[in-house]
Amino acid sequence: MQYFDDVKNILCDTLGLTGTARSLTQDSAIMGGIPEFDSMAVVTVLTALEEHFGITVDDDEISASTFETLGTLVQFVERKLGE
Asked: Which residue ranges does the record assign to the Carrier domain (predicted)?
């Protein structure tokens, strides 16, 4: 998980997570696990990931499983980057 720290920091910064929330692991639940993560947060996080990594995410590429855990989100980014 080469981009774990980048994705974690983007998620935390975008959602304004502080303190213990910053200790997320790859198994940490995002959807349903972070109260701040709602439908608007999905759009904001995806936009931040697109800008940071220079990727484009199409609507049909996104599913609930992408945001199941921090690890699944990192894997999604890695697939988009061709890693």
From this structure: 1-81
What range does the domain containing 25 cover? Answer: 4-80
CATH of the domain at 50: 1.10.1200.10
pLDDT mean values, one per 10 residues, the chain (83 residues): 93 88 89 91 96 95 94 96 83
Beta-carbon contacts of residue 37 (< 8 Å; ≥ 6 apart)? 15, 30, 31, 45, 67
- Distance (Å, whole) CA 80 – CA 3: 12
Structural domains in the chain (count)? 1
Predicted TM-score (pTM) of the model is: 0.91
CA nearest to 28, candidates 63, 72, 66, 65: 72
The pair phi, psi for residue 49, each rounded to 5°, is -65, -40
